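Bumping with the actual sequence this time:
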Amino acid sequence: MAEDGPIPLADAAPAGSAPPKPPRRHHWWDGYMAPLSDEERRRAIEEPGPSWTEFLLFSYLKWLLGMGFLIADSTILLTFLLPLDPFALAVTFALALYLEYLLWQYLWHRPPLQEGRRFVDPDFRSSWHHPVAYGRWTPEAKAVREGADLSPRRGPDPRDFL
């Protein structure tokens, strides 16, 4: 039979001392990130990356708008598939896809890469498939708003003569 009364604890800390630290828990993210050196920490603080506005306009809203397009297309598809009207489905779906394409071009169209830079053709004319020379939310639009010249060079390259 066991004696009645308190059971003595073998690992009890002496009175007045701090309790022992619990063992470190292992999380699912352990091992995914290597510890940073002091040089890497300094560079990360000096160059933190894109601003929230740049991240939002150049990356995040592309995915969000794509999901909105998917929801709109699914709604159109289900609207005309349940009562089965193939002509209305084809016309509405084609119109929706074209409007989505135009909106995407208006926001994120980038001119082609030439000589390591993106140039905007000074003779650009909008058409049914390229409504703007560069999208409103692109690095080219940001550069133009800041006063950069995106027109291609005319004549020989001055670096050839140096």
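The tokens above came from a reply further down the thread. The longest helix spans residues 52-81.
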